[in-house]
Amino acid sequence: MSAVSDASAGDQLEARTVTITRADLVAYAGASGDLNPIHWNERVAVEVGLPGVIAHGMFTMSLAARYVADLAGDPTAVVAFSTRFTRPVVVPDDDTGATLELGAKVTDVADDGTRTVGVTAMHEGKGVLGKAVATVRPR
Amino acid sequence: MPLDASFAGRSWPAETYEVSLEKVREFAAAIGADDPVHHDRDAARAAGHPDVVAPTTFPVVFTWPATRRVVDDPALGLDFARVVHRDQSIEVTRPLYAGDVVTSVVVVDEIRDLAGNDVITFRVDVTDADGAAVLTTRATLVGRAEPGGEQA
Description:
The complex is a heterodimer. By secondary structure, chain A is α+β, with helices and mostly antiparallel strands.
């Protein structure tokens, strides 16, 4: 039994903190094929008006979806995920990286056991994913 | 600049993509997904899967290039340098596995104007080699108005 399949509506699930470094962005750029330089080149990022190199929105969403899959104990359990990208995650050129605080709360349990999970992703105290919702279905 | 409204409701022919063991491993490693079912064929089969399991967000590997073909069509009138990715969703019909040969059809769901900014939603319907549904993604992009430029 996983944390999600035991949970009732209103239950807060175990939070997780992840860090994102420049090296992580380069690895994600290669794996995803999204080579937009704002995700790895400070000069280009600043030229287009950003405070610095920012994480791919899809990378942040991927970390959030993986977090929910881990909570479910099954990588195929997340059958839907939707989000708005509300703020960029600026990733500094250092060895520490940016911190992302992930949280999840079950908001609904359907008759077939499917859970609706509201997901939060905070960076420096502000939400970077808006209205993030995962649908988790037990196999 | 307003987008060409005639793009709304149009769809673009299918593009084929073959999901491979190594790409699944690479993507899973990049997002820190260390569950063996993403990396080890035997572990995936022991868990009841036909092959390694692609992470939930893996389809961006092929849905984004398929979408980009439409985004970059000069006739649409979207300046990619001013584009912000606002919303993203994925709905999974069945898990995606290494060995799947999938086709993606891009559809422009909606085009609208929001205070002078162009808002466009792309849907990508992904089916397997048998024509069965695998997943659907939706991405909403906003083309920001040029500062001081024309307002729709």
